[in-house]
Amino acid sequence: MSDRTPRSRRRPWARAGTRTRRRIAGFLALGVALLAIGGLYAVFQPTPETATAQDNTLVREGQSLYDNSCITCHGSNLQGVVGRGPSLIGVGESSVYFQVSTGRMPLKAQGAQAARKKVEYDEQQIDALGAYIQANGGGPTLPAGPETALVGSDLGRGGELFRLNCAQCHNFTGRGGALSSGKFAPVLDAASPDQIYAAMQVGPGNMPTFADSQLSPQEKEDIIGYIKSVSTATGPVNPGGNGLGGFGPVPEGIVAFFVGLAALIGISLWIGSRQ
Q1: Cβ(210)–Cβ(200) under 8 Å?
Q2: What CATH number did the domain enclosing 79 receive?
Q3: Can you tell me which residues the record assigns to a coiled coil (predicted)?
């Protein structure tokens, strides 16, 4: 008689040992996979942008300016004050640049629309205010580089896009015009390329915003190029004769109407005298 344990009795213990080994192998494989994923993430993750000391100084300067001149209307946390000023969360440095560099802000008195006036801050202070608003509220930023880089060269396309998107309010050559409720579209002669680009980004007043999905940066630059080409500040060329103020077909139609009416009256009188 053999004293060896039958295979049928040893089989459950063998199966338990196999399951244990499989579990250990599975945990080891999972650990290796997690380590591999962590290593890949560490290799390919973007380098975080850390604020420089200069940036922090600019933000602190902007906060000081904000606390002295803007906090009464726009609130301590940029959330705005009812009846005084809107929230600045999400407007970005582009809105700050447009409003402050054109003298529209700080606002002297409440009205239907803030008009362009003498600028109260220098470029350094405007940059500081924009840095503070950007750091605490986020939003669109102006493209880096000189203003001349924003003036596109395709004036034909710029003129077409301007007529499709802007001429309804600013007229065909940026002469501006009246809107409802005491508001108006300003004349664009005094606006710099940066100011026009910022206005398209943030849509001040009744103006709509134009995201890059609607007008690409290059298309915005072409529009700016067209505006500058017809601006009276740079002396537009009028190959057809008198520019009639640059208001497009409206004054031309009026002139044609009165000239035609005078011609018809003259012809009628001549025919009557002949009879």
Answers
A1: yes
A2: 1.10.760.10
A3: none
Whole-number Å distance between alpha carbons of 239 and 96: 39
8 is a domain residue: no
**Which residues have CB under 8 Å from 188's CB, separation 6+?**
170, 174, 176, 196, 227, 231
Tokens of 211: 């995201």
- Domain boundary (137, 164, 187) is at 137
Q: Structural domain of residue 88, as residue ranges?
A: 53-137
SS3 216: coil
- What would you measure as the largest C-alpha separation in the chain, in angstroms? 153
Residue 10, amino acid: R
pLDDT in tens, 154-165: 999 999 999 999
| Amino acid, res. 55 | D
Asked, for residue 9, whether it belongs to a domain, the answer is no
Q: Of the spans 7-21, 27-41, 107-121, which averages the highest pLDDT?
A: 107-121
